[in-house]
Write a structure and sequence with these properties.
single chain; OB fold (Dihydrolipoamide Acetyltransferase, E2P); 3 helices
Length: 484
């Protein structure tokens, strides 16, 4: 009887070890401990962000007015509604043209006046150039004549005068000698005749007077020749030389003056031509600006008011005003999207461009999209980094402006053993779990090597196998493997 009772007690004890509930040990009841089976799966750490779906293929539209700028009003007279579908070339907006039409008319008259002024200037310059050429030719002829006079005097006239004076002096000398001979002959002839009548006296008297006059004339000619040689010819040569030098200097000054005048005239004309060309260019720009007052779709797609990533988009209506060179509309492909978001500075060093991300649109939370993160290199104001998630493949249900949740994958371990993080206990610097081969135990302590944790579960790289049970406080007992 005692033997049967002992066997029954042993059977009950062993059955108690494998069932949940109190366990009898050394006469005391031990409470059962919740356990869970280790499973294999993928564990990640992520950064969650809010984002907005925006078009990934779009053409932004903005005015690029070059001449019609400044304090001008660009008022819309019509614009297609936000979200309209358009084809390439469709008119999507028009601007009021009343003010620019007046500007074009005024600038056309100003341009015509400038072109007429240019024609008058060119004609006047041609007249001035002809007069300058005549004056230069006259000065050149005068200088050439003065130079020839000087050369003629030096090379011919001076020598001819000297030769003439020499011949004249010789003639006077010979004539004087002849008169002297004649007078001597008369005196000798009349001296031999003792009777000297009145006629003979008259002849001798006249011969003596002629001879005396010839002597005086010869002496005067010698003095005049000396004066001419010493003074007059020198002065005359100096006058010719001075006149030639003055005419040459005057010609040079005229040439220099005309050169400066031509350069100044050319510079003024170049400036006027440049100003006229600028005026023509501005007028042409103004006419092209007018063409932009009818705005057409650059491609086929959906019309969005504002920039492609400006969701939620603003709305333009009739009488709204636009700003030059500022995007006011976008035509986008309605089937291709990307996600715009921001990254806080505290997370930027963990999130690199190219990191994978999961996107779940708020309108369709079960729809999971996969993309790659692209982060701007430098932060914006407030230390925020703008980022884009490029989606590999979209969904026909998506629409521009949808809000979405983004999980950017920071780290990931695939096909690893996972357990709840609460199953770990640190002892003497090592991580320990209480584990068993089967549910309910018996449990033993075992040291493990841990891996990545997402805050709830943790990867076990060594020390624990898939399917082994671990004591996990606050974890419900598992009947089967749990997968993440």
């Amino acid at each position: 009887m005692k033997l049967r009772l002992a066997i029954l007690v042993c059977l009950l004890a062993s059955l108690g070890l494998s069932q949940e509930g109190p366990v009898m040990t050394a006469g005391k009841t031990q409470p059962s401990q919740p356990s869970i089976a280790a499973w294999k799966g993928t564990i990640r750490t992520t950064v969650e962000r809010d984002g907005t779906l925006v078009p990934s293929e779009a053409t932004e539209i903005k005015l690029d007015l070059k001449a019609y700028t400044g304090r001008v009003t660009l008022r819309l007279t019509e614009i297609l509604p936000h979200g309209s579908f358009v084809n390439q070339g469709d008119v999507i907006a028009r601007l009021d043209t009343e003010a620019i039409d007046k500007r074009i008319k005024s600038d056309r008259m100003a341009l015509d006046s400038s072109e007429m002024s240019m024609q008058h200037t060119e004609a006047s310059n041609r007249g001035k150039a002809a007069k300058a050429a005549e004056a230069l030719a006259k000065s050149e002829r005068s200088a050439e004549r003065a130079s020839k006079k000087m050369r003629g005097y030096r090379e011919f006239e001076k020598k001819a005068n000297e030769e003439g004076e020499r011949v004249s002096a010789q003639y006077r000398q010979h004539r004087l000698e002849d008169q002297k001979d004649e007078l001597d002959q008369l005196e000798k002839m009349y001296g031999e005749d003792e009777l000297v009548d009145a006629t003979e006296e008259i002849v001798l008297k006249r011969s003596r007077r002629n001879f005396a006059r010839s002597v005086a004339n010869n002496d005067l000619g010698d003095r005049r020749r000396a004066y001419t040689k010493e003074w007059y010819r020198q002065w005359r040569e100096e006058d010719y030389e001075t006149d030639a030098q003055n005419k040459a200097a005057s010609l040079q000054r005229l040439r220099e003056s005309q050169q400066r005048s031509r350069e100044r005239t050319a510079a003024d004309l170049k400036k006027k031509r440049y100003d006229l060309e600028q005026q023509r260019q501005k007028f042409a720009d103004l006419q092209r600006d007018l063409e932009q007052f009818v705005i057409r779709a650059p491609r086929r797609g959906i019309l969005l008011h504002g920039e492609a990533d400006a969701a939620p988009w603003s709305r333009y209506e009739k009488d709204s005003t636009l700003t030059n060179r500022k995007v006011f509309a976008t035509v986008a492909d309605p089937k291709k999207f990307q996600v715009k978001t921001t990254i806080a500075e505290k997370d930027i060093l963990r999130l690199k461009s190219g990191t994978a991300a999961e996107i779940a649109p708020t309108a369709a939370p079960k729809l999971k999209l996969i993309g790659r993160l692209q982060v701007e290199y430098l932060p914006r104001k407030g230390g925020v980094f703008k980022a884009t998630v490029h989606i590999g493949k979209g969904d026909v249900r998506l629409r521009p402006g949808f809000a979405c949740k983004i999980n950017v994958i920071v780290e990931e371990e695939r096909d690893v053993v996972l357990i709840p993080k609460t199953a770990l206990v640190e002892k003497k610097g090592a991580m320990v779990v209480r584990c068993a081969k089967m549910e309910g135990g018996p449990f033993v302590e075992r040291q493990v090597v841990t891996g990545l944790s997402d805050g709830k579960n943790i990867a076990i790289r060594d020390g624990l196998a898939e399917g082994e049970f671990v004591v996990a406080p606050s974890a419900a007992p598992a009947k089967k493997k749990m997968h993440r």
